[in-house]
Design brief:
The protein has helices at about 5-20, 25-35, 40-50, 60-80, 115-120; strands at about 85-90, 110. It has a domain at about 35-120. The radius of gyration is 19 Å and the shape is extended. Helix 3 (about 40-50) crosses helix 4 (about 60-80). The protein is mainly alpha-helical and about 130 residues long.
Length: about 130
Protein backbone atom coordinates (compact mmCIF):
# COMPACT_ATOMS: atom_id res chain seq x y z
CA UNK A 1 0.00 0.00 0.00
CA UNK A 2 1.35 3.39 -1.03
CA UNK A 3 1.68 6.22 1.42
CA UNK A 4 -0.61 9.18 0.92
CA UNK A 5 2.19 11.45 -0.34
CA UNK A 6 3.27 8.84 -2.90
CA UNK A 7 -0.31 8.48 -4.19
CA UNK A 8 -0.64 12.25 -4.50
CA UNK A 9 2.66 12.42 -6.38
CA UNK A 10 1.47 9.71 -8.79
CA UNK A 11 -1.86 11.50 -9.32
CA UNK A 12 -0.11 14.81 -10.02
CA UNK A 13 2.22 13.12 -12.50
CA UNK A 14 -0.72 11.46 -14.29
CA UNK A 15 -2.60 14.78 -14.41
CA UNK A 16 0.45 16.58 -15.79
CA UNK A 17 0.87 13.94 -18.53
CA UNK A 18 -2.84 14.18 -19.43
CA UNK A 19 -2.71 18.00 -19.57
CA UNK A 20 0.33 17.91 -21.86
CA UNK A 21 -1.39 15.41 -24.17
CA UNK A 22 -4.74 17.28 -24.13
CA UNK A 23 -3.58 20.88 -23.93
CA UNK A 24 -6.57 22.46 -25.74
CA UNK A 25 -9.15 20.45 -23.76
CA UNK A 26 -7.44 21.41 -20.48
CA UNK A 27 -7.39 25.09 -21.49
CA UNK A 28 -11.07 24.98 -22.44
CA UNK A 29 -11.96 23.41 -19.09
CA UNK A 30 -9.93 26.00 -17.20
CA UNK A 31 -11.55 28.84 -19.15
CA UNK A 32 -15.05 27.46 -18.56
CA UNK A 33 -14.36 27.07 -14.83
CA UNK A 34 -13.06 30.65 -14.60
CA UNK A 35 -16.05 32.11 -16.46
CA UNK A 36 -18.51 30.14 -14.33
CA UNK A 37 -16.99 31.33 -11.04
CA UNK A 38 -14.48 34.19 -11.48
CA UNK A 39 -14.80 35.73 -7.99
CA UNK A 40 -12.41 33.32 -6.19
CA UNK A 41 -9.77 34.03 -8.84
CA UNK A 42 -10.27 37.79 -8.56
CA UNK A 43 -10.10 37.62 -4.76
CA UNK A 44 -6.89 35.58 -4.97
CA UNK A 45 -5.28 38.09 -7.35
CA UNK A 46 -6.24 40.96 -5.04
CA UNK A 47 -4.84 39.08 -2.06
CA UNK A 48 -1.54 38.50 -3.87
CA UNK A 49 -1.34 42.17 -4.79
CA UNK A 50 -2.15 43.18 -1.21
CA UNK A 51 0.29 40.61 0.18
CA UNK A 52 3.06 42.22 -1.85
CA UNK A 53 2.22 45.40 0.04
CA UNK A 54 2.24 43.44 3.32
CA UNK A 55 -1.44 44.19 3.84
CA UNK A 56 -2.73 40.63 4.31
CA UNK A 57 -2.69 39.62 7.97
CA UNK A 58 -1.64 36.06 8.80
CA UNK A 59 -4.51 35.65 11.24
CA UNK A 60 -7.36 35.76 8.67
CA UNK A 61 -9.71 32.79 9.07
CA UNK A 62 -11.23 30.71 6.27
CA UNK A 63 -14.57 32.40 6.93
CA UNK A 64 -12.98 35.83 6.50
CA UNK A 65 -11.36 34.69 3.24
CA UNK A 66 -14.79 33.49 2.13
CA UNK A 67 -16.25 36.92 2.98
CA UNK A 68 -13.57 38.57 0.84
CA UNK A 69 -14.41 36.29 -2.10
CA UNK A 70 -18.13 37.04 -1.61
CA UNK A 71 -17.39 40.77 -1.78
CA UNK A 72 -15.76 40.28 -5.19
CA UNK A 73 -18.71 38.14 -6.26
CA UNK A 74 -21.13 40.87 -5.13
CA UNK A 75 -19.24 43.45 -7.21
CA UNK A 76 -19.62 41.27 -10.31
CA UNK A 77 -23.30 40.66 -9.63
CA UNK A 78 -24.01 44.38 -9.21
CA UNK A 79 -22.08 45.12 -12.42
CA UNK A 80 -24.12 42.51 -14.30
CA UNK A 81 -27.44 43.79 -12.92
CA UNK A 82 -26.82 47.51 -13.45
CA UNK A 83 -24.55 47.48 -16.50
CA UNK A 84 -22.20 49.82 -14.61
CA UNK A 85 -18.74 48.49 -13.81
CA UNK A 86 -18.31 48.02 -10.04
CA UNK A 87 -15.09 47.16 -8.23
CA UNK A 88 -13.99 46.25 -4.72
CA UNK A 89 -12.33 49.18 -2.98
CA UNK A 90 -10.33 49.37 0.22
CA UNK A 91 -11.96 51.91 2.53
CA UNK A 92 -8.59 52.61 4.09
CA UNK A 93 -6.07 52.38 1.23
CA UNK A 94 -3.33 49.76 1.43
CA UNK A 95 -0.75 52.50 0.94
CA UNK A 96 -2.25 55.76 2.17
CA UNK A 97 -0.41 58.99 2.83
CA UNK A 98 -0.99 58.93 6.59
CA UNK A 99 -1.83 55.30 7.37
CA UNK A 100 -2.09 51.90 5.71
CA UNK A 101 -5.19 49.70 5.65
CA UNK A 102 -5.40 45.92 5.58
CA UNK A 103 -6.87 43.52 3.04
CA UNK A 104 -9.63 42.31 5.40
CA UNK A 105 -13.42 41.93 4.91
CA UNK A 106 -14.34 44.99 6.99
CA UNK A 107 -12.04 47.23 4.97
CA UNK A 108 -13.69 46.38 1.63
CA UNK A 109 -16.59 48.06 -0.13
CA UNK A 110 -18.22 47.69 -3.54
CA UNK A 111 -18.29 50.97 -5.48
CA UNK A 112 -18.38 52.03 -9.12
CA UNK A 113 -15.13 52.04 -11.01
CA UNK A 114 -15.52 55.76 -11.76
CA UNK A 115 -15.92 56.55 -8.06
CA UNK A 116 -12.91 54.38 -7.21
CA UNK A 117 -10.73 56.20 -9.75
CA UNK A 118 -11.91 59.55 -8.43
CA UNK A 119 -11.21 58.46 -4.83
CA UNK A 120 -7.67 57.32 -5.60
CA UNK A 121 -5.61 56.47 -2.51
CA UNK A 122 -7.30 59.00 -0.28
CA UNK A 123 -8.38 57.97 3.17
CA UNK A 124 -12.02 58.27 4.25
CA UNK A 125 -13.03 61.69 5.44
CA UNK A 126 -14.09 61.82 9.04
Amino acid sequence: MLARNERLAQQRKAMRIWREANRETARARNRAHYHARPHPYLARVAAKRAHGKEAVPQWLTKEQWREIAETYQRAQQISAMTGIYHVVDHIWPLKGEVSCGLHVPWNLQVITHALNVAKGSREPEQ
